[in-house]
Amino acid sequence: MAVDLAARVETRTKLFNRVCLGVLIAFAVLWIGPVAWALDTALKPNAETTRTTWLIDNPTFDAFGRILNETDILRWFGSSLVIACLTATGTVFTASLAGFALSRLRFRFRRVLFWGILAGIMIPPQVLIVPQFREFDSLHLLNTFWAVSLPQIPTAVAVFIFLQFFDGLPRELEEVARMDGANFWRIYRRIVMPLARPAISAVAIFAFVTSWNDLLWPLVVLSNPDIMTIPVGLATVQGTFGIRYADTMASAILGAIPLVAVFLLFQRNIVEGIAGTGLKG
Amino acid sequence: MSDFTGSGAGLRRRDLLRGAAGLGAGAVLAGCSAPVLSGLGTGRESAGSLDFWNLFGGGDGVRMTEMLDGFRAAHPGTDLKAVTLAWGNPYYTKLSLATLGAKPPDVAVAHLTRAKTLIASGLLEQLPLDELARSGITPDKLDPTAWRAGLVDGKAYAIPLDTHPFVMFYNTDVCEKAGLLDSAGKLTSLDSAEKFTDAMRRAKQVTKTYGGVVSINGDSATPWRIFQSLYSQLGGQMLADDGAQVVIDRGKAMRVLTFLRSLTSSGLVPGGIDYQGAIATFANGQAGFYFQGEWEISTFQTAEMPFSMTLFPNVFGGGRYAVQADSHTLVIPKQPDTDPERRDRSLTLIKSLLDQSKTWAQGGHIPAWLPFRNSAAYRAMTPNSAYAAAAQGAVYDPQGWYSGSGSNFEIVTSNAVATVLGGQQQPGAALAQMRDQLLDLAGTPSPIEGGAR
Amino acid sequence: MSTTQTAVRPAAGASQPTPRPARADRHGLPAAGFLAPFLTLYLLFILGPAAYGLVMSFFDASLVQSGLGAFAGFGNYAEALRSADFWSSLWHTLWFTILTTPPLIVLALAFALLADRAARGRWFFRLAFFMPYILPSAVVALIWMFLYTPELGLLQNMLGHIGITAPNWLGDPDWAMPSLALTTLWWTLGFNFVLYLAGLQEIPRDLYEASAIDGAGPWQQIRRITVPLLGRTTTLVAVLQVIASLKVFDQMYIMTSGGPNFATRSLIEYVYDEGFTNYRIGYAAAVSMLFFLVVLTVSAIWFRIVRRGQKEI
């Protein structure tokens, strides 16, 4: 009897799983649709884009060429890259140091600092754009990469990721090193950080992607098209293409390519890095 | 957290290297040498460069590009870089932020009514007359109304390129059948409330749908434009003391609103149509008259319909003509450093654009550059030259930090006027609403009071 | 998934047993050195501006004038609370949150449940659903504005084929916000999807096996085991989602500029407009502070609701 029941359940489960898969594939196709349509349109000549069809009579890369030649998109790539690298490096560096201190060192006000940094998670960055703009204005740093990057570097969430990771590391090695007279800087550099690669990659990826995609803050501080980031540049020139839809879609595809390429290379790491870090954000 | 940090899911060294290589390739791809890294410093672009910002899309954008190419051909030594930004508030926001952020364009386009706010905020360079004269720009060569409207304390900051008034488009076929054209094909006078209404009625008899059409729904400018045109024909004022006071003349405003309501309540003009709808109604021949800024000229030329244009009728003015208008001006935003050569290049560009007024006028705008406007070439442009007189009667939006093209002021007034045209509110109630909202704005401390920083 | 625990009860992480009971500030000097980079930037660019913003909100500060301007007391706050624009943009933000949160939770859960049953090709689903999430907002906006274009947009065309007259997506004040919500659903669903996938990994397989022996079908398993055990993930997803939705700015700024007729202007966009377009940074700072309060309040309320709901399960 039991065997019979189990077998019946199993066939039912198999059928159920198949239906599930079908539904899921349908949705996945739907989800890919917009990007596929953008790509399809970008490969048409502008004149063909007014017909709503997937078929392309004269496929061409001209739209991409025009965007690369006529807009500053290559410069925007450069800006985004420099800013995102600055931010990711700065975040990993400052947060790991702070996380290490909170995890390994005993000092007065530790608890106060801990809560002080934790409270920072509650402040949405959007709340600060007005005073931050004033601040960078008086520092004469508006329209520089520093203005975009510096406020993105101190990330309370990153500190806690490192803190937690360090708390989970065994301490025996460090004890031995301490006995040998190594100072904390050496322990941090030689022992702890090499073990912390998962945390480093998670924080770095999260900081990089967040910085790359940020719109509001760079929109406020980067007002010169020469040094805009990809999102700000695309948001600024949108509408100036008019009804040249192939060109518009080509600019969208080009704007998407760098991160998508990186994503395809490191899919798993990125998904886990973003999801894992986002948990705390 | 532990399930992702602890499970060895992180990057391996090989991955990191691969990533670094990928990023490096990206950097090379971006051609990121000196220009990109300029964002790390605070310096400016190299010598010989000239940045120009404008907000023109559509046909104006095409003509502006043509003019800029003209400049490039004549001045190959100057590396002109033109940027077109989205129209309206985003444009002025960006211009303000770039100027505050010490990376302004060298030359920019600004509506005259918005330039006034920029001037009061200390964001524009003053242009001394002798310097202008050296570049060949003198006040006597510019439209006097637009020139005077741009002065602040007698000083010049903005060089008018054109005047773009509210005008009347009319369907020549409809008007002919309605008996509104004289033997020479000229439209009869509509210069009184009775004549105006009568013309609408006769046009409606021909079209069987509407006499005239004006954009109302979801439009935060057109209702204001038609109201202001009529109201200023009566000599009415809206604001005083740089926007700190609301001085609406109730009697005059009521007269205008009642007149406007009479047009829609009698069915001569549709009371609820949006911008595109109004264009379509006129283009389809469902209305004999269409009221809008002259820039829609290209739309109807493209539609190849029988139409012409003339001054918005002087319904209430009697001897004096007045019509709502604004001007595109060329300005030099406050520069972070003094660079005489850069300044020279900027003024050369401004002069070059003025010299190409013929190209610009094709978009319907009345050129402010008198050497062209008084030429036979301009008089030969039809129907453009038919409404050139509007430039003298141009009434700019009242001065105030919240006023100007696309501003809160136009939004508030347009909304109120639209409710009257649509019949949702009586003129008295709408006027009270307009007044209350303007008082709110007037009572708000001005962010530009006290001038430059 | 234990992360939230740390975030909520940080003392747990902090109270690691130390090898030796020691003076509280035994490592005062090195600690200062290690903390200095982070704390300097944190004070300069986060806490400093936060305090400055609070001060600024009590003045009629202007973008184009130096200094703080005239003292306004609670004038800016009073003006915001009296302003119809403030309340309507607050409502738009809440309306957006209401429109996006439920589908972003329910669909993400559904997709994750389905994907969890797929024996093969999970990478493909992850790619399909998660990739939009890493696109910049501007790219998403450009693509969807084209999809929404009247007459020749793909969406109108597709709906036309099945006999539905498409609305004027972004042009109709009533449809503009739902259209932005649909775009956001497509864009950010992947994030919640991945969180749910991770949550599913944590459910012990033997629970399913045991219930299968008891004759429970797949649907019953989902209802009785999976969904209840995902409760904690759902709380997390919901809180993160609500907060993310409240901060919305990009989609409106690019796709509708807050229009048509201000029907989609969010609170953050209102701050941007008042501060940077109208130069009224004192007022904008006050609205920012009110926004901060809203975020804190909504997350506190939401947290309590979800917490209570969880206990009942």
TrEMBL record, chain A:
Q: What is its main location?
A: membrane
Question: Which InterPro entries does its entry note?
Answer: MetI-like, MetI-like_sf
Q: Which GO annotations describe the biological process of this protein?
A: transmembrane transport
The record's keywords, sorted A to Z, are: Cell membrane, Membrane, Transmembrane, Transmembrane helix, Transport
Q: Where are the transmembrane segments?
A: 15-39, 76-100, 112-133, 145-166, 187-209, 249-266
Where in this chain does the record put each ABC transmembrane type-1 domain?
Answer: 77-266
The subcellular location is: Cell membrane
Choose one Gene Ontology CC annotation of this protein and give it.
plasma membrane
Q: Matching CDD domains, A to Z?
A: TM_PBP2 (cd06261)
Annotated membrane topology = Multi-pass membrane protein
Q: Tell me its family.
A: Belongs to the binding-protein-dependent transport system permease family.
Stated name of the protein = Sugar ABC transporter permease
TrEMBL record, chain B:
Q: Which InterPro entries match?
A: Bact_solute-bd_prot1, SBP, TAT_signal
- Listed Gene3D superfamilies: Periplasmic binding protein-like II
Q: What is this protein called?
A: Sugar ABC transporter substrate-binding protein
TrEMBL record, chain C:
Q: Which Gene3D superfamilies match?
A: MetI-like
Q: What family is this protein classified in?
A: Belongs to the binding-protein-dependent transport system permease family.
Task: Give the organism the record lists.
Answer: Mangrovihabitans endophyticus
The protein, known as: Sugar ABC transporter permease
Q: Which SUPFAM superfamilies match?
A: MetI-like
Q: What is its main location?
A: membrane
Q: Which PROSITE patterns match?
A: ABC_TM1
Could you list the residue ranges that cross the membrane? 28-47, 94-115, 127-148, 175-198, 229-249, 281-303
Q: Where in the cell is it found?
A: Cell membrane
Q: Mind telling me which Pfam families this protein's record contains?
A: BPD_transp_1
Sorted alphabetically, which keywords does the UniProt record give?
Cell membrane, Membrane, Transmembrane, Transmembrane helix, Transport
Annotated membrane topology is: Multi-pass membrane protein
Q: Where is the ABC transmembrane type-1 domain?
A: 90-302
Q: Where is this region: Disordered?
A: 1-24
- GO cellular component, as recorded: plasma membrane
Top-level taxon of the source organism: Bacteria
Q: Which GO terms describe its biological process?
A: transmembrane transport
Output the InterPro entries linked to this UniProt entry: ABC_transporter_permease, MetI-like, MetI-like_sf
